[in-house]
Every structure is written in structure tokens, then in C-alpha cells.
Amino acid sequence: MMYPQLVIEGVYFAIISIVMVFIIVFYILTSRARRSVESSNVHSEAGGMERGERNWMLFLFSIALIGNIVFLSPLLPSARNTLYSPEPALRVEIHVEDYKFHLPEKTIRIPAKTPVEFVVVSEDLVYGFGIFRKDGTIVFQMQVVPKPYVNRIIWVFEEPGTYDIRSTEYSGPLHPWMFVSDAIVVEEVGK
Amino acid sequence: MNEDERKILALRFALVALLFFALAGIEGILMRLRILNQLTAFFDERHYYSMMTAHPFVGIYGWAYMAVMGAFYFLVPYVMKRDIYSKRAAYASFWLMIIGIAIIWTTTFVTHYAPLYTLYWPIPIAIELAGWHPAAIFSFGIGVTLVLAAVLVFFFNMFATIFLPVRVELNGGERLGAGYVFKELMLTAFNLDKLWAKVKGIPHYTARVFNYPVFVVAVFRGCVDTTLNAFVIGGVGLLLASFGLYHLISGDSPGFALIDPLVYKNVFWWGLDLIADGNVLIFTAGTWYLVVPLLLNRRLYGEPVVRAVILADLVVSLFVWNHHMLADTPQPLALQIQGQLFTWGELITMGLTIFAVLATIWHARPVKYSAPLKFILASMTGYAIGGLAGIIQANYAANRYFHNTQWVIGIHGHIQLIVGLSLTIFAAIYALFPLLTGKTLSERLADAHLLLMAVGGVVMGLAMGMAGTLGMLRRTLYPMGLGVYKPYMIVAVAGALMMATGFVVFLINVIRTVGLSTLIKLFLPQR
Q1: Domain that holds residue B458
Q2: pLDDT top residue among A146 and B161
Q3: How distant, in Å, are the alpha carbons of B165, B168, B193 from that of B204?
Q4: Which residues of B touch A150 (CB under 8 A)?
Q5: ipTM for the complex?
Q6: What CATH number does residue B455 fall under?
């Protein structure tokens, strides 16, 4: 299964591979040049930009523009579900107190492909709220800011299956135990 | 202080910084092993998290800040051909930093107080819930306050060294007031003088007081960020000390509701992120701007643009804090998007910085790569790898997957800090060593040091990051087993051990060059 974070990681590794190859080639070219290149001492004294520098800056601006457009578009499920939030068909309220999740029922049953709003309220400390697949990968997460704040996120589960809940934020030495196995079961619509 | 005294001061700072680097490294390796559920008899979860609390203070303030302070106490007077403003202040910052870190380390080690460096309200004061002792809160708060007091004293000394006197008397006897001096400082330091000339309709602006090298501009620009940071984090230290003291005296707590947790988090991250810009990015860039042209005997490429970039990055740095809070849903969406947009601005400013340094090297070819130059090239690679990961995780949508995972602290945090920042600090050490001691370190051992640290750092960071993509969290032990994350954590340990070996090679290089007794004598009273 190609999760969004794995796709992002793949693109990232491709780019840093190019960066590393570039630096190695740069090192070889600059250390082994045969001629003196005093003629290329072309610093801009007047405060203007060289053409290469200007082009590089335009390239960086373009990358920043494209990056923002991609990450703000509904391309990623996380953007679709949070920035373009559909109307929730279901609401699940969870309370957190003294390092424990208090779920509305032992196993929360949710229909697949249906917008669900998770409302998480902390009675005391800062916690995290993350839903994980059984293979350990994150479906989504949010911080849980304590009262008086209410933390909400709408999500559409595309895949039926069983999911775990884990606190994704450190809140004290008991934090690693804030794990609820098989907390959510997402069922195919119509079942 | 004369130049010899400044050399001794710089060497003392450097030596203490290296000791803190070693301590942070030992902590890091121990924590890596503990994540693998090894050494469980040696330290439990409370001990682990207290070590995780001390680790960034030792690494960032003990290592990075002390190394930077030592280098700048020598370099700024050297470049500006004047003395440090105050010798007393210089040594006050030295001792305040050591005492502050010692208090933080001892408090966490002895009491297992573990609010982590994030100090999210109200975790640091959760006496009943988390089991903290009020004396530990007080002591930790004092330690944090002293560390940030050291930072403020250092910056006061830097600003005073660079800018005083505030009124200048020219050779002709004309006296220029503080207002004029400040205006000219702003115009010339950030390359706004040409714009000013256009506004005034004059052919060109002639500086009468200032003509700062770009290195000095970067130093005081970085000092702006890190001074603001010191007020915020030092303020939190004072808050914790006051809270602990109140509890010790009254036996009661003012309560969590004393402070709004979301407002606190915003202020905290606004202040904390300024370290990333001031210390990690701008001080590093300033060191490149100084060392690379000096080694190549050339001017920095595109210096006017670099000055403008330094100013632009100040604006960027003041508005990026929200990329730490993209997973906080009560936070207004407009602030979330602002955090994302401004973080992309760092791609542009850092990209132009790296371009200027690479272009300087390119125009100097053929280049004989000495140790400092190799370290700087590797450091720039580290910034590219770590910085790009940071920009990815700082997008609102991507943050749902990456927030608080090993990706953030591995690929972004540790590659940026170890391969990026630390290799630049080592570059400065290799470059300054002959100036400070009159002796040169072995180039072959320096190569081995570089290879082991750079490769080890990248291997560790990438392995952590890949585990993060699979869902492994930072700041979390997995007492029920690591599962699919385990192979990545084993590779991360291998990377950490490579770095440790690299550091040992560096120590051997230093000791065989100057001798252990010379290093010890540095801390004896000088005649």
C-alpha cells in the first residue's frame, strides 16, 4: 500500500540523491580544474545580481510556489480532510485524563468513506491523538491542547480495517503506555 | 584584553564546548540503546526521559552556543581590529553557562524531572500527575534562567563590542549622534544604502562611520534572534523557578489555569524557533562568509545580495514559529498557513546563502581543499538534506503524517544540527587552530574525522527518518516492542557509533598535536 508519507519520502530521497551527487561532482570539478579562472572573478560590485544568481533565485521562488500549491491542494488525503472538510456524518467524542483515553465505547465502529469528526478533550495535560494502522503507520494525528480548548479533526477512512490509538505527544513518563490497541474498526459501507 | 588573552578565552570556551559535545554524544548513544529496549536494568523510563530533557540543553547550549561564543569572542575583535567590550562579561557568560547547564543536568539526573525541552504548559508543573518534586521544578528553572542569562550577557558584550561608542567623533572633530550612527548602521549593514540614495536622489550614499564585513553583519543579525529567544526561554525558566519556590513555601500550587496553554505554546515556539534561525542558520552562514573567502583569498560572491538576504531572513525568522503548531487544531487556520508560507521563505534565503558560498568556491577553482573547506562543503550538504526535510514537514497537510515522528528529529533535527551546524563548528576549529595555538592539525586525521561524522550523521538521521515515515514517534519508548521500526533503530545506532569514532579521531588529532598537558594548563591561572 502506497501511503502518502511514503510517496513524499520517495520524492525527498530522489531530491537529496541529486543534491549529494551534485556536491560530489562540484568537489571534483573545483579541485581538478586545469586552468586558472581569474577571468571569472565577476562579483557584482554595484549591488546587482549576476544572471546565474537571479535565475537561481527565480528557481527557488518557483519551487516555493509549486510546493505551496501542491501541499495546499486537495491532492493529499490530509489536505482533503482538513482544509476542504466535508460535513461530518458521525461524531466521536474522546476524553483524555491522567494519561488515559476514555473512549465512548470499547471498540469504535465507523463506516468507511464517511466523514467522521473526532472531538478530543483533555482534562489536564497536553497530549497527542494519533490513529495508526496495524502495521504501525500513521493515518493522521493532532495535538490535544488541554481545556478550555477542544480539539477537532474530520477524517474519511478510505480502507476498512482495525486501527490503534496512541498519544503522539509526550506528557510525562507514563506517555508510552497511552496506547489503545484495536480501538477503531472501520467497516465497509452497507455491512 | 590583549590578543593572547582572547586566544585563551576562545580556547577555554572551545574545550568546554567539546566536553559538552562528548556528554551529549554519550547521552545520545545511551538513549539510542534504550529505545531498542536495551539497558533496561540500567535506566528506567523516568531516567530515560530526564536524560532526554537534559540532552538538548547540553547539545545546543553547552556545545553549539559555547563553541560559537568562544569563536566570536576571538573573531569579532580580530575582524574589527578592536578589543572585546568587557572581559568580565566574557567570563561571566562562560561561568553562567557552565553553572546553568550543570544545574539542569544534575537536577534531571538526580530527581528524574523530565518536562523535556518543549516545556508544554502545564507538563512542567504537573506535580501530582507526573510525580515531579517542587524542588526539582525550582532548580531546573534556575538552571534554565542562568543559561539564558549567559546568552544575554554574551550578546550584550557582542553588541557593545560592535556598536559602542554610540556617539562617534570623526577625524575632523565633527561629532555624530546616536541617531545618526543607528541610521547609518541600518543602511549600510543590510545594503539598503543604494535604496536610500535613490530615495534621496543622490548619486550614492557614503558611509561615515560603518563599513562592516558581512561576517559581523551576520553575527549581530543572529544576535537579534537569539537575544529574543533568550528573553522568552529565560522567562519560562524564571516562571518555573517562581512556581517551584511558591510550592515549596506554601505547599500548594497556583494551578494549571494560571496560564493559557495555547497562548503559552505560541509564545514559547516563537521564542524557541529563533534559535534555529539565529544560531543554527545565520551564525553558520556568517562563519561560511568569513572562512571561505579567507581560505580562498577571494571576496565573497554576490556580497551585496548576501547582505540583503540576511535582512530578509530576519523577517522570515520572526514569522515561522507556527510550523511547530500545525497539528494544533484550536490554532487559527490563518496562522497555520502563515507558518507554512514563511517556512518556504527559508528555502529561498538559505538557497541563496549556499549559492553565494558555492559560487565563491567555483570562481576560485582549482581549489586546494583544506580541512575547514571540506567540512564546510559537507556542512552545506547537511543543511540541504536536513533543511529540505524540515520544509516538507512544515506543510500543513504533510504535518499530519510527520509531526512528532522520528522524521522530524532524525532527518531534520539531527542532520541539521550534527552534519550542518556541528561540521561548521569543526570547520571553524580547524581554521582557527593554527591562529590560536600556532600548530596545525593533521589533515589525514581530519579527513577521517569528517568522513566518520558526516556519513555517520547522515546514516543515523536517514534511518531515524525512515522509521518516522513508518509511524515511529519521537519522545516515545516502545516498551511493548519496536516491531517494524527495529531494523532502522539498529542502523541508527551504527551511525551514532560512527560519529563517536569520528569524534575520538578528532580528540587524538588535538592531543597528539598540542599535548594533553597544554590543554589542562589552559584552565590554570595564566601568568
Answers
A1: 364-527
A2: A146
A3: 26, 22, 8
A4: 330
A5: 0.93
A6: 1.20.120
